[in-house]
Each structure stands twice: as structure tokens, then as C-alpha cells.
């Protein structure tokens, strides 16, 4: 029986998820399909209902539906509830359960570089949905301290409050965060600042970043942002967002198929598509 999967978003034509999941299906010789569906907010409820009526095994959820979709599901995982957003739905015999693989996907990519996070101090820049997912996953994993800085401090405070049950979490105004850079082991940009085509901007200055800190960017297009290049000049280690994107997709794929996701094949397919798009835009 053909496995039906896809992604709901608005807009969604730019999504790399179909490229990634089709590569995984092909690598494992699974008969299935994965398509992108442009679903506006007013169409979301009907779209979710169609998952049951048309027998979809799973669906990814991207902007702007990650929060609103929770009202239309039969159940939500503990982590997705803590994050307050869903990016993956699994259909088990008509029961739709929402999960969030974003935070765990990024955490997995960090753990490939940093074995033990228990004594680490983490600074998050930005307080959107991606920041919330990363913050909850890191807090639940047991980091020593989690600080969030954002232009709107009330949004940062919402995240800090969510995480207090697991770790020391706090809000820092931008000026204080900048002054405290030298004290953080991981500094993570969760904003879109520096994303193509606006590639010359940086979320903050890296003047005081400590050597051997891990500076991360959730952006993966371009692969190396100016933020990461400047971090390398300061002697910091760097990590872009490609690992998070692949890992979150792989975790969803494994939920839907019960098979180990071919992460390297998925990654190579995404990188190839990105290069192809870059060449066509020149």
C-alpha cells in the first residue's frame, strides 16, 4: 500500500521537505509520496480532516500553522505540549497525534559536536517558534543555564517561564546579552537574520565571543552565514541549521515508516537542490 505523506504550509513552494523525503523513500525502496500543500489558515481544519478521509500516514506542519493545528488533533505529545507547537502529525488508524521534532533535531546535531551539555550555559537569540522548540529541548536535556534575548522581551519571558521547571532560565535584554557573550558556551541564532538574500546582516556582534564556544545558526541557506564566518575568525566552533533540518525530517520519517531514516541520502539531496537553485538564480 502506498504511503501518503506531505507538508502543510502557507506559502510552501520553497520547502525542501519534498526533496528530502522523496530521497529517503527512494533510498529505502518504499512505495510512497510526499507532496507540499499550500493551505491557508481558513483551509487548515479541512486539510487536517482530509488526512483521515484520504488515508495519509503523516504530515509535516510548517509556518504559519504550527500552533493553530493543535486545536484540530486528537492528541499531542508531551514535548509538543511543552513547546506549544506541532511540526509533525502521525495518523494511527484515524487517530491524529501531534509531535514536535524541531528541538530534538537541533539537539541531535549539537550532540554530534558536544558530548555533554550538563554544565553548559546557552544563549538563544530570538523568541519565535524555533527558539521555543530549541529552548524546551535543551532545558529538558539538562543544560546548566538557558538565557533568551529578543527585541520583544515579553516573548522571551514566555519561553523562560516554560523552561524553568527543567533548568535555570532567564531573559536578557540585548545590551546585557551582548556584554555577557564571553560567559556562554553555546550561542544560537534562531532568527532569520542573515538568511538569503539578506546575507550581510548579523543578529549581534561576535566581538566578545570566547574561543571554542559553539556558535550556531538555524539558517541553512546560505550554508555559511556571515555570523558563522565571523565566529570562526574569533576561534569559535560553528554549526549551521542543515543538521537540524535533516534530523527533524528524519525523526518524522521514522515515526511514519518505522524504518531508520537514511540521513546522509536526505542531506545530499537537499544540498544538491540548494546548489541547483543557487546556480539558476545567478
Please provide a written account of the structure.
With 282 residues, the protein is α/β, with parallel strands linked by helices. The protein folds into 2 domains: 3-100 and 243-280, 3-Layer(aba) Sandwich (Rossmann fold), CATH 3.40.50.10860; 103-240, 3-Layer(aba) Sandwich (Rossmann fold), CATH 3.40.50. Helices cover 39% and strands 20% of the residues. The strands form 2 sheets. The protein has a 6-stranded mixed sheet, with helices on both faces. A 6-stranded parallel sheet has the order 9-8-7-10-11-12, with helices on both faces. The termini are far apart. 43% of the residues are buried. Shikimate binds at residues 15-17, 62, 87, 102, 220, 248. It comes from Alteribacter lacisalsi. It holds the Pfam family Shikimate_DH. One of its GO terms (cellular component) is cytosol.
